[in-house]
Amino acid sequence: MRQLLLFVSIILVGVLFLSRLFYLQVYTSNEHDLFNNDNAIRKVYDYPKRGFIYDRNGKLLVANQPSYDVMVTPREVKPLDTLEFCALLKIDKEKFIKTYNKARRYSPRLPSVFVSHLSKKDYAALQEKMRKFEGFYIQKRSLRHYQTTIGANVLGDIGEVNTNDIRRDSYYIMGDLKGKQGVEASYEETLRGVKGIKFIQKDRFNRNIGPYKGGKFDTIPEQGKDITITIDAKLQEYGELLMQNKRGGVIAIEPSSGEILAMVAAPTYDPNILVGRERSKNFTKLIRDSIANPLFNRSIQGVYEPGSPFKLMNALIGLQEGVITPNETVTCYAGYKYGNRFMKCHCYIGRRNNLISGIQESCNAYFATTYRKILDKEGNASTGIDTWSKHAKSFGLGNFLNNDLHVGQKGRIPDRAYYKRIYPKTFYSTYTISNAIGQGEVATTPIQLANMIAAIANRGYYYTPHIIKSIEDKTLPEKFTKAKYTTVDKTHFEPVIEGMLQVYKKGTAASLQVKDIDICGKTGTVENFAIIDSLKTQLTDHSIFVAFAPKNDPKIAIAVFVENGYWGSRFAGKIASLMIEKHIKGEITRKDLEDWILRHSLEEEYAKPYSGEPFRINAHTRLQLVDDSEYKRLKRQLNATLQNP
Amino acid sequence: MVRDTNRHFKFDWITIILFLLLVGFGWLNILSASHTGTDIDYFTFSQPYGKQSIFILLTFCIIIVVLGIEAKFYERFSSIIYIVSILSLIGLFIFGKNVNGATSWYAIGSMTLQPSEFAKAATALAVAKQISDLNTNINNIKDQIQTFVIIIIPALLVLLQNDTGSTIVYGAFFFVLYREGLPKYYLTIGVSVIILSVLALKFGILITSIIASILILGYYFLNRSKKKVTLLQSLFVLLLSIGVSFGVKFFYQNVIPPHQQDRISLWLRLEKDPVKLQQMKKTFAYNLNESEKAIRSGGLNGKGFMEGTRTTGKFVPEQHTDYIFSTVGEEWGFLGCSFVVILFVLLLLRILHLAELQKSQFSRIYGYGVASIIFIHFLINIGMVMGLIPTIGIPLPLFSYGGSGLWAFTILIFIFIKLDSNRINEW
């Protein structure tokens, strides 16, 4: 039986080994971790070209520029001619030693950036000699190259992804670039393309030793697509020029298509400052400016009470609901009395206004009466306000436009449910009378208002305002090409449009007429408040203007908001007229308006709330002129825009 | 002439085929583990796999020589072979070349030779000769001591050269001696000491003592009526056991070098602190950790020949030598590993079977020695690579890279094949 000891031992060990192997390789195997957790394989990404951005006339706005970083892998560095190398890189020897030691501390085996963002010229000189410097190599990266200084809020910028971006979309890895604002963000997937992946086999020192399985799993990058946006660079540039030294937003839409022609937010910045080495510093500066807030896109994010332009809406609802007729008149007593309260108006006492003159003179009494008639039509303001709300919302107000802009705001069109909180039981039309003149609870963004004007210009329908004109080979989605009808019949628009025309002919914007163009517009002067030292303080009114032109074949619908610009035609109206003339004629005949706008600034007005001093508003303010050097600068800029083809 | 051709057919072809399969499959894995770049130069001195091909070619010359020599030669000259082998080991103290802390190599130009590999075969011959001697009785203490001395001299010499792994291999002769009639208490004591050591290190002396008391006193009380053992005897054994436990603990803490302490601590999972465990993975446990990872990543079918990412990336140090089995694990998976394990088991059982068939006592004992030596290598190497046994650096026979090892095992096995082929002529 002594023979059995070794025999049994051999069998036992064999069985033991097979069980252990089964445990390791079948039961707890990690073979499927190949692409995710195998530190023997490195994924190297091949980044495609990011798509270019063109304006509606085919002008290139955003392209790419190569950027060259000199990388170093300290372990592989062989003795070199440091003098020559430093001269090529334009650094001194101390800097060389410092950077080299830093890279070595980080990792002797992994590459670190030695000098970043070499100029093209330095790169060319260096590349010739690169073979002499073992352990160093040049890494090419792609940065955005803006061909313009305008449209920062439209175009946006790209920046490195953060951990949230990666969690939301596993496509990204640390260090990837992603659109952060503007069309760069909203058309990120189109512009970026799809990066290719190469699987590289590495050794235990993390060095590359060739493609994994001969590149069987590698993918080729898919190039980013070029896009054309609806922005007219010339109009945009002009709008930005006019809005200098002011704050607010200008948005112009082509009514027949919903294409956004211009989207100005002021103040703005030069998009080039967010490229390259200075990006981080400049971005911090922009985002920390909580007063001027240049990253805040006022034309689509700014929520303002719309003021008088909203009277147009009330007129349309009144006509649709049949509570007013165009010729019916209302007598104004320089205001409107309701209960024991009084709403002032600019009309002289006893003026009788019909719909057209009501719009023309922006008569508060007329629209207060109209608003009450709408709400009280069925004898119950609760159902009345819901009807009113429904009509207003059909113009795209009070909700997201659901378009292709990266940011947006809902604004607010109140209904009974909204007021339930404030007035749980009784509810009368007079409670909300401010809505009649576009104050109170209604709130809109400039783009919503411009879209409302586009719907009026189209006599009853609109196209969702959008910024994409075309993407290489793709057709636009239906939501941008299909008209959306309002709940107001076509016939009711004519009298309102006639009123808007009269605003220009003899009403509140009579001084802004442009020869040969029938502009239909409406001024707005909106009271607004700020909390200063926990006190609600009234500031100078916002200057607002909406318009479309020409009357019979609308080419442009525009909304202009100038914060604290006082009355509607003072700043906003002038800018709107100039923009319309620029778009339709291509040149400016109202040089006087242009000059006035360039000469005047509102910076003093904006400084007031932060001065800590008591200040006066509206009629008690004086107009601020820009100084000569600033005026000359603006003029030079203006001339430059004229010279560029 | 007719007799000569006949004789060739008497070689045990099953053993030869198993041998060739292991050497061939081993070479494929050495190629995979040591290959760099894209070109394969099959016979080059600059790459381990190229060297190994040359070693394998030389192996065939050795086989021809070993099989060509008259079988009687091995028995007659076993003492001389043994003495030459011992002298070559002693010579290392003067002429030896130090590699990885062990002075086990003679350097002849770019070639190195490791005499300790050949000493195993020489010792197997000497042991077979000693026990098969008509004057030797293994139950006789004096003869036992003589035999032990034959085994201990080379074992001690390699230990002094810092080659602990090879020393342990000499324990293989226990199987041989036991087969030939070594008293049973050697087995009992051996197994008891191993169990006591593991228990003492893993659970501490107190628990070990309690377990030993229960077992020994329980055995006594159950067999009291049969008068097999006295209470005094039982108490003596118990005291001895507790003494062994203390001894082992003392030995572990004060005698053996720290790196071996670490290996044992790792094997018995004595360290519980996760921070220190993480630290271990980066230091002395790195090899084992990487080799286990490579084996696990192979899964059922493996990643394919030359396609193991961890092998190609050289993640497992010493992969073409002691850790060659992790390459099999990664590239050939569970199926390939099972194939290797089964090949070894078949080879061992075949040699064992042939040994039992021998009519000459010398051949049988030698065959047993061959099987035991290969078995210990197989057990320790594969056990270590899979983390079943503390890290002990010895190669996998016929598989691992290295000329000395390959030739030594070739000689070891083919002497037996020669002896076996001769068994019919012996009558």
UniProtKB/TrEMBL annotation, chain A:
GO MF annotations in UniProt: serine-type D-Ala-D-Ala carboxypeptidase activity
Penicillin-binding protein dimerisation domain residues: 47-209
Keywords, alphabetical: Carboxypeptidase, Cell inner membrane, Cell membrane, Cell shape, Cell wall biogenesis/degradation, Hydrolase, Membrane, Peptidoglycan synthesis, Protease, Transmembrane, Transmembrane helix
Pfam families the record matches: PBP_dimer, Transpeptidase
Residue spans crossing the bilayer: none
Cellular location(s): Cell membrane; Membrane
UniProt keyword annotation of DNA-binding present: no
Known EC number: 3.4.16.4
InterPro entries: Beta-lactam/transpept, Beta-lactam/transpept-like, PBP_dimer, PBP_dimer_sf, PCN-bd_Tpept, Penicillin-binding_protein_2
Residues of the Penicillin-binding protein transpeptidase domain: 248-576
Primary localisation category: membrane
Membrane association type: Single-pass membrane protein
Record keyword Ribonucleoprotein present: no
Protein name listed in UniProt: Penicillin-binding protein 2
Organism: Flavivirga algicola
TrEMBL record, chain B:
Ranges in a coiled coil: none
Membrane association type: Multi-pass membrane protein
Membrane-traversing stretches: 12-33, 53-73, 80-99, 105-127, 148-177, 189-222, 229-252, 332-353, 365-392, 398-417
Keyword Transmembrane helix: yes
InterPro entries attached to this UniProt entry: FtsW/RodA
Subcellular location: Membrane
Keyword Transmembrane helix: yes
Main subcellular location: membrane
Keyword vocabulary terms for this entry: Cell shape, Membrane, Transmembrane, Transmembrane helix
Pfam families, sorted: FTSW_RODA_SPOVE
UniProt protein name: Rod shape-determining protein RodA
Species assigned in the record: Flavivirga algicola
